[in-house]
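Incident log, support desk, overnight shift.

02:14 A customer reports that sequence design results differ from what the structure should imply. Their input is reproduced verbatim below. On-call engineer (initials T.W.) acknowledged and began investigating.
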């Protein structure tokens, strides 16, 4: 009797179990050396549905690569009496230094604005919130200016229709890492979305760091700032003296 009831309820139990994501990345460690011109990061994985049964309705994948948070002071320049001077400024206490999102379809077609804001899916839905402004108009102006600077620098990127889903269960996406990418620990987030709802999510870490001589220089500047400054001045003087001596001989 109990076995019969369990068999009857099995399809309902399977349907109630949420799907699961098994993500991975092509590189867990990206080293920046003197010849670094950028890299391509492959984010891929599988969607595990309960019982191995594919859903009747299409599901979408959104992947997000976020860099470490940073604090930025943005200054606005104005032309006063023919001279460009710093005017208003805004401080952003915590914002991603790098942000790239890729989706299987345009974000507006698979998720609404409220859910996008909750999960910060899309550049326009990042929670920037400058801390030194009170007027909403000024806040929007500075946020738009900061996002524009990040976009032009290749640090904020949106790739629509760039996630491929094979056989409904395997997915992959490629995200370009620019040459001037900030170093630190990155998070590669994957979201499974169906009917505007996030059904599952998973995270993998990616470390981007300097390597070789670049790491030595960065560590010296960070840990021994005074000595690093003296060495930089000494090297500049030596090269300056050498250039002067060379041109004098000619």
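02:41 Re-run completed on a clean worker. Output:
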């Amino acid at each position: 009797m109990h076995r019969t009831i369990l068999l009857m309820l099995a399809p309902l139990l399977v349907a109630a179990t949420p799907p699961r994501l098994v993500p991975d990345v092509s590189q867990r460690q990206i080293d920046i050396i003197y010849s670094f011109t950028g890299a391509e990061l492959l984010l891929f994985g599988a969607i595990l549905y309960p019982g191995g049964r594919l859903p009747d309705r299409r599901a979408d994948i959104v992947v997000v690569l976020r860099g470490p948070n940073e604090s930025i002071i943005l200054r606005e320049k104005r032309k006063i009496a023919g001279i460009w001077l710093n005017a208003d400024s805004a401080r952003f206490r915590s914002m991603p230094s790098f942000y790239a999102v890729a989706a299987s379809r345009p974000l507006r077609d698979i998720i609404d604005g409220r859910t996008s804001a909750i999960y910060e899916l899309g550049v326009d839905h990042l929670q920037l919130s400058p801390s030194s402004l009170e007027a909403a108009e000024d806040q929007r102006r500075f946020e738009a200016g900061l996002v524009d600077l990040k976009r032009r620098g290749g640090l904020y990127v949106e790739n629509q229709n760039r996630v491929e889903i094979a056989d409904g269960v395997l997915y992959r996406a490629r995200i370009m890492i620019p040459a001037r990418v900030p170093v630190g620990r990155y998070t590669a987030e994957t979201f499974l979305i169906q009917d505007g709802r996030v059904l599952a999510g998973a995270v993998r870490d990616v470390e981007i760091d300097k390597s070789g001589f670049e790491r030595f220089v960065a560590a010296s500047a960070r840990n021994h700032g005074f000595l690093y400054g003296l060495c930089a001045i000494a090297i500049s003087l030596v090269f300056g003296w050498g250039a002067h001596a060379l041109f004098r001989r000619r």
